[in-house]
Amino acid sequence: MIQSLIWAALGTGFAFLMTVSGAATVFLFRKQVNEGLQKIFLGFASGIMIAASIWSLIIPAIEQAEALGGLPWVPAALGFLFGGLFLLIVDGIFAKCTNWTNRANLLVFAVTLHNIPEGMAVGLAFALAAQNIDQRELYAAAFALALGIGVQNFPEGAAVSLPLRQEGMSAKKAFLYGVLSAAVEPMFGMMVVLVSGFIRPAMPWLLSFAAGAMIYVVVEELIPEANDSGRSHRGTIGSMAGFLIMMILDVALSL
Does 51 reside within a domain? Predict the structure, then answer.
């Protein structure tokens, strides 16, 4: 428990610091950021999140469910579905109960919301590794997940703070919003590790739940924002590059 707690703290702490670094770019750009660069950032983040959902969440969920007995695809499929539906419902409730019609504010909420399952995913990955005999491969997958989430958090932090700055918010306040959007990540990562010993049978469901929530955010928020209205394919190229890098990291670290 202590070992997985320490590694989860380091993994989610790294992801948090990467978001902070991305948010800090608000101090570098005094004018509007190049739209093409934003498209690449968002596409890159989406590609990494898709790959992380597959190799670091869904596949381990299937393997863990198989080890526990029963049909391995059931928790993976239903957990994935519940994760997407959960964010769909929360997103709808939020839209009806607030007057935050500003796009930048909605982006802050979306990023903060999806940082919760990201933190859970890292915490669960390390907790899963600590609870199994063959720990080397599972720890490697957990490291890859933490690294991948951290890498994609840099453009994510910039995607939160820069639009706020462009809409007239001070650089310090826009930076603070970016930092706060990632604060939930280590909180939920540590919390999940603390209760993981009591919920081991549910871990395949939780892993796939986090995957479903991440894919929902990718499809709902990141990919539409990364797509150009013209003929440019910058967002698509960024997405493919992110997916490729995360896939290589995950597979290479598990060898």
Answer: no
If DSSP codes are grouped into helix, strand and coil, which group holds residue 102? coil
Please enumerate in sequence order all residues whose Cβ is within 8 A of that of 49, keeping only pairs 6 or more positions apart, or say none. Answer: 149, 152, 214, 215, 217, 218, 222, 242
CA pair distance 40, 235, nearest whole angstrom: 5
Query: Which residue do the tokens 């959960």 mark?
Result: 86
- Domain membership of residue 37 (yes or no) is no
Which helix (H) or strand (E) segment is 172 a member of? helix 171-195
Range of the domain at 170: 2-27+57-253
- In terms of Cβ atoms closer than 10 Å to its own Cβ (0-12, 13-18, 19+), residue 253 is middle
Residues in the chain: 255
Residue partners of 211: CB distance under 8 A and separation at least 6: 53, 54, 57, 58, 61, 79, 80, 83, 121
Helices (H) and strands (E) in the chain, counts: 10, 0
Q: Which sign does the torsion angle of CA 46, 107, 172, 8 carry?
A: negative
The answer to whether residue 223 sits within a structural domain is: yes
Between CA 93 and CA 8 the distance in angstroms is 31
Number of domains present in the structure of the chain: 1
Buried b / exposed e along 218-237 (16+ C-beta atoms within 10 A): bebbbbebbbeeeeeebbbb
Backbone angles phi, psi at 202, to 5 degrees: -90, -5
Supply the pTM of this predicted model: 0.72
The string of pLDDT tens digits covering residues 123-180 is 877 877 776 655 667 777 788 778 877 877 887 787 778 777 777 788 898 899 889 9
